[in-house]
Write a structure and sequence with these properties.
By secondary structure, the chain is an all-alpha fold. It has 2 domains: 65 residues, no CATH class; 31 residues, no CATH class. 62% of the residues lie in helices and 0% in strands. Helix 2 packs across helix 3 and helix 3 packs across helix 4. The longest helix is centred in the middle third of the chain and has 13 residues. It is elongated.
Length: 112
């Protein structure tokens, strides 16, 4: 396993799905895929399909997981969506405020 992180690919997600279907322990899956155990756990937790109306389909599905991951990456972050918020944060960082101080101020203002 390398120290350099790379996103999990659709091919890796398909392999993860296959191994999970075969009931291979997640630690062994991580070793076989050359990923850290926590990466595999996190992948399954964050990108599993959940629906209260169709519970039979709940679980980890490679293509669905890939779509969820891509959607999350393309979603605009708060500082991109709110230019005035971005301006405030940059000004405070330039004034040597810590991220914690900026966060505390924004919370007290009930900012987005």
């Amino acid at each position: 396993m390398s120290n350099c992180y790379s996103q999990i690919t659709l091919r890796e997600r398909r392999r993860l799905f296959e191994l999970k279907q075969l009931k291979v322990p997640l630690g062994d899956i991580a070793r076989l895929m050359g990923r850290h155990r926590s990466t595999i756990y996190r992948e399954i937790k964050r990108n599993s399909f959940r629906d209260t109306e169709i519970p039979d389909y709940n679980g980890y599905h490679s293509v669905v997981a890939d779509n969820i991951s891509k959607e999350r990456r393309t979603r605009l972050r708060k500082l991109r969506r709110y230019p005035e918020l971005r301006k405030f944060v940059i000004e405070q960082l330039e004034a040597h405020w810590s991220p914690e101080q900026i966060c505390g101020r924004l919370i007290s203002w009930s900012a987005p």
